[in-house]
User: What shape does this take?
Amino acid sequence: MQYRFRDYLFDCQQYLLQQNGQVINLNEKPARLLSMFILNSGKVLSKAEILQEIWPDRVVTDQVIFQNISHLRALLGDDAIKTYSKRGYQWQLDLESVYESCDEASLYKNCATLLRFFKTSFKKYVTIVLAVFIIASGFLFPQLGDINTPTESVFKFNQAQTEAVNLDFITEKNVLVSTQSVFDSPYHSWENLTSENTELVVAIRWYPLSKGGVLRFLIQGAQRSWHDYIEAGSKESALSEMSTLLQSLGKTQYFNHKRQHLVLAELALLSEQATIGPLVARQKIQLLLASKQLRQASALVAMQLSADNSTFYKGLLLLQQARIFMDNDQWDQATESINTALSIFNDLQIEHLQARALIESSWLHFVDSAFVKAMQALNKGAAKARVAREPLTEVEAHLIQSFLASKAGREDLMQTQRSLARELLTIHQLLDVHHLELTYNKAWSASEEEDALVYYRQILDTPYSQQFEKRFYSAADFLRSSAINHRQWQLAALSVKDWQRQSYQYLGMAITAFARESFQRATEFAEMAFQQAMVNQHQVDALDAALLILRIHREAPNIKSASRYRDFISKSATNRWQSINRGILSELELGPIDLE
Assistant: This one.
């Protein structure tokens, strides 16, 4: 007997699980457990019943049941199986019995039988065979006639061959790698697929809407990536605009520049091209947000929102605006932006963007001390990510749930959510580097400094990845602070790494020198950090360096232009940065700055 639930089909006799026609690998024990739940869907199954049915000849603990149920939940959704305290577990999803199967294997078998029959009775049955073939082809090759199937392609090209990037080139998949793997691991994909720094890897996917659709794209180069969307009335129009963007980018050094100010200069030139102007503006917002230049980012978002945008583009801009507000501790404004964006993506039924908006909204509930609402938003976000087949987004939702549970003192829930995330990484066979998020979650949730330090050291021992830049910098921050607190100067020096931007390296050396009361060296390093940060437009590095210089000046007055750094802080400090440094600012008599 076969049963259908959501987009899954499960054969309880063959223990075969399919999702949208694709076979999902399922080991024997989880498969038998799934069969047991489905065949007893109206019953709460006790642990004793499960053990007797699935492990009749073995002595195992209750933890084995929990692990296998966690595996099924990670695959099918948290809401698939409900736990009844001290009673057992029960299947929760609606089931539809399927009595006849029309899968590809049976179609091939039937076609083979008909062909043998065809050889013996050619004239009599030719019409029947042709009819069956036509019908079968509709099952076997649905992509030929299904206009709703998303267009997916992955290709690479050398920037020296920009003119070759036309519509035909884009639509011809010329790289043997999945689109989702590039979305999930862009820099790793680029490293594996290219041999020269001037090569770009591009992944595209088309999402049909009620009118037209949206082309999602990711471009990865040696130093940076570009991830955005193009809305158009047809695939052809979107791909044509994509071709224009690639040809324009191919003539620049945007993907090869290391320094932020050079990248922004390239974008300034590109923004003059009317056809790609809005794309360039959204990318500039992303860069400004990443470097914490929140005032400039906020102004640019407001300018774009005031323009004549489609509903979809408004949703994207509101997501960016919400992130800016959140980074500046403007929670009420962030809530308004994220709720409007979520409403837009709900109406358009774009699941992966619904998931993104729901995950962002969970932080707003957390700040508002609404733990249950935060967890509910994350559950919904994980479900949407699962439908959209975005495994990393689903993993992210579970890891945030794990963190929130740790802060709420829910150790059991923290471990459960972390286990679900680990299961998803295994099920989807994601790269080892993605397990770094699990390590970061453990460090983030650790209650003791020593425990957190172990995990942060593991992160720093991992080969650096652009994709997880924030995690690596957070680990370096924690290691340096811990080493300084324990006056372990050699360990503090080890927190400076080759992959770090130069302003951050100078800043780390300045902080360590200040802690050792080597004020002259601290001043020299801090001033170099400030200069580098200003040139490369790294706002937080510049603010941290300016604050350190003022602290050094208080201990050993030797800076002639201290007012310069005071003025910079007064003009540039964000709410979040002020909150983090409130105590030091108060000591230096630098009052709060209203950035609302």
Summary: Residues 115 and 444 are 63 Å apart (CA to CA). Residues 104-144 form one domain. The mean pLDDT is 85. The two ends are 62 Å apart (CA to CA).
